Amino acid sequence: MLRLANIHAGYGPIKALKGIDIEINRGEIVSLIGSNGAGKSTCLMTISGILKSVSGSIMLGDTDIAGLPPHRIVQRGISQVPEGRRIFPKLTILENLQMGAFLGRGDFTTSLERIYKLFPILHERKKQSGGTLSGGEQQMLAIGRALMSNPDILLLDEPSLGLAPIMVSKIFKTIQEISSEGITILLVEQNARAALKLSHRGYVLENGCITLSGSSSDLLDNKKVQQAYLGE
Question: Is the pLDDT score of 232 beyond 70?
């Protein structure tokens, strides 16, 4: 469904991605794990078109979307939940969700009802400004905003960052529920154990290069992964 082939990307002279290859099949949850600065967020931003790749291809089905502007990529069915949530703090919850639907993929009312069912708290507080929500509630809003575009593929960047353990559990349960609806997910997450337990397959990114890949169960059993990312 989505395939990155020999992707190079970076920031000026800094080479953040050095020829990575990633493949995601329809309906999968795929984890991308690695240390801070490994290039995980850069990978998501390159897929989203926020950062342009220097070379390589990003195939969505039979179409190379590398080089397309972000709004065209959203129109093609890829939506990102950025690290740090980045909601609009002065807008209401409803207005934040409306911003996620501006491209008009699908019926707005149906999409909104779906988000309110997934996150009832957003319906209860729909007139409340986003900036007054707790960190966990803001994460729900960020996910809801991304889902308002009715994506086929959801890119999640550090969804558990800064959240209390009970909220982390809720967020991961929600990710599983979103997956059960048929949405394909690429998950970047510092909590490698939780990410691998949730996902079907995983990739390990180190210094801009994919160094390991395989089923999540195999990666959980891998001694190198255990020592580097699982605290064992």
Answer: no
- pLDDT at 220 > cutoff 90: yes
d(CA 50, CA 33): 21
What gap in Å lies between CA 77 and CA 20, rounded to an integer? 22
Residue 95 lies in a domain: no
> How many domains would you assign to the chain?
1
Q: 88: closest CA among 42, 128, 43, 148?
A: 128
**How many degrees, rounded to 5, is the angle at CA 24 between CA 22 and CA 29?**
120
Contact 184, 28 (CB under 8 A): yes
Residue 43 lies in a domain: yes
What's the rounded Cα separation, in Å, for the pair 101 and 215?
A: 34
The answer to whether 19 and 8 are in contact (CB under 8 A) is: yes
Give residue 50's domain range: 1-77+183-232
Q: Are 122 and 97 in contact (CB under 8 A)?
A: yes
Find the mean pLDDT for residues 128-156: 96
pLDDT digits (tens, 9 = 90+) for 76-108: 999 999 998 999 999 999 999 999 998 867 889
Task: Please provide the average confidence, as pLDDT, over all residues in the chain.
Answer: 95
- Residue 144 contacts residue 119 (beta carbons within 8 Å): yes
CATH (domain of 36): 3.40.50.300
